[in-house]
């Protein structure tokens, strides 16, 4: 097993132990993963090396010293390693399928009820209404348009306002979930 396979195996043992246990033959799996990573890294590093403007601007003099050439090659290799290993090996939480991760996220994050309580507090004490900057930040945090939050506070019954805008809330929840799992 090469170093990329070994690094991936250690990463999975640490960060995805449940998924690691499901692998029938970990040695073979990570040996093959390491070989795949090595091939992709070699190819990507070669592409980066031959297209140096992607890496570093060339000096006016085309006479590079040996040290600069080695530096270019090492930089290309490190970039390629990071890109390929990010795609093939580094996993944040592979033990949870996406639908289960979403279910867990729904249970552990603030829900729409928090928005209703916030709007009712703003209605009870209008002087607590946040500044435009704070309102824009709240809208960004909740992945909702500012006009929605303003309408929520202005609504006679905030709960009904949310019910009337369920599709927007569902889309915002999906955006917040995807923002966190990236």
Spell out the key features of this protein.
182 residues, mainly alpha, 11 helices, 75% helix, 0% strand
Write up this protein.
By secondary structure, the protein is mostly helical. The protein is built from eleven helices and no strands. Helix 1 crosses helix 3 and helix 7 crosses helix 9. The relative contact order is 0.09. The mean pLDDT is 80.
Topology:
Elements (H helix, E strand, L loop, with lengths): L2 H13 L1 H5 L4 H25 L1 H4 L10 H23 L9 H11 L3 H13 L7 H11 L3 H9 L3 H7 L1 H16 L1
Helix pairs in contact: 1-3, 3-5, 7-9
Give a brief outline of the structure:
With 182 residues, this protein is an all-alpha fold. Helix content is 75%, strand content 0%.
Shape: elongated
Count every helix, treating DSSP H or I runs of 4 or more residues as helices. Answer: 11
The pLDDT mean sits at 80
Category from helices, strands and their pairing: mainly alpha
Output the helix-strand order: HHHHHHHHHHH
**Helical content class:** over 70%
Largest sheet: none
Number of strands: 0
Low-confidence stretches: none
- Return Rg in Å: 25 Å
The rounded distance between the terminal residues' Cα atoms is 29 Å
Strand content: under 5%
């Amino acid at each position: 097993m090469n170093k990329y396979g070994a690094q991936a195996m250690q990463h999975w043992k640490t960060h995805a132990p449940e998924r690691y246990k499901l692998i029938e033959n970990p040695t073979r799996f990570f040996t093959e993963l390491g070989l795949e990573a090595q091939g992709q890294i070699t190819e990507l590093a070669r592409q980066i090396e031959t297209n140096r403007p992607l890496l570093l601007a060339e000096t006016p003099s085309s006479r590079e010293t040996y040290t600069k050439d080695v530096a270019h090659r090492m930089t290309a290799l490190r970039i390629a390693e990071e890109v390929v290993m990010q795609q093939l090996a580094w996993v944040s939480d592979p033990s949870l399928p996406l639908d289960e991760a979403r279910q867990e996220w729904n249970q552990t994050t603030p829900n729409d009820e928090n928005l209703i309580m916030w709007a009712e507090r703003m209605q009870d004490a209008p002087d607590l209404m946040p500044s435009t900057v704070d309102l824009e930040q709240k809208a960004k945090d909740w992945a909702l348009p500012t006009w929605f939050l303003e309408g929520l506070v202005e609504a006679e019954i905030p709960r009904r306002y949310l019910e009337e805008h369920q599709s927007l809330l569902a889309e915002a929840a999906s955006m917040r979930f995807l923002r966190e799992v990236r």
